[in-house]
């Protein structure tokens, strides 16, 4: 009977042992197709299994199904996650401002 492997081993076996970042971290990588050169054999950059597209919350990232996971090096993952969180915070801030605009519209024509 084959013993099931851990999530990282499965992701590495399925997608290879190279960081999946293609610039989501904000850096321009100088590799094949501008992909990060960090590999699972690298001593300074161990890989982790994380969603191909980072989500803003840890809960969303932890709930990502196995088929969405890819190998990431820690530096790229941290930067990509920070960028996604900043984008989401900016979007939420804009939505909040848009919702509040009507609160301060004062009708200058007060007939009462």
Question: Based on DSSP secondary structure assignment, what is the total number of beta strands?
Answer: 2
> What Rg do the Cα atoms give?
21 Å
Percentage of residues in helical conformation? 25-40%
> How many structural domains are formed by the residues?
1
Region (Disordered): 29-56
Descriptive account of the structure:
The structure is a single chain. By secondary structure, the protein is mainly alpha-helical. The protein has one domain (7-97). It is built from three helices and two strands, in the order αβαβα. The protein has a two-stranded antiparallel ribbon with strand order 1-2. The protein is elongated and about 65 Å long.
List key phrases describing it.
3 helices; mainly alpha; 112 residues; two-stranded antiparallel ribbon; 9% strand
What can be said about this structure in brief?
The chain is mainly alpha-helical and 112 residues long. The protein has helices at residues 7-15, 58-62, 74-100; strands at residues 47-51, 69-73.
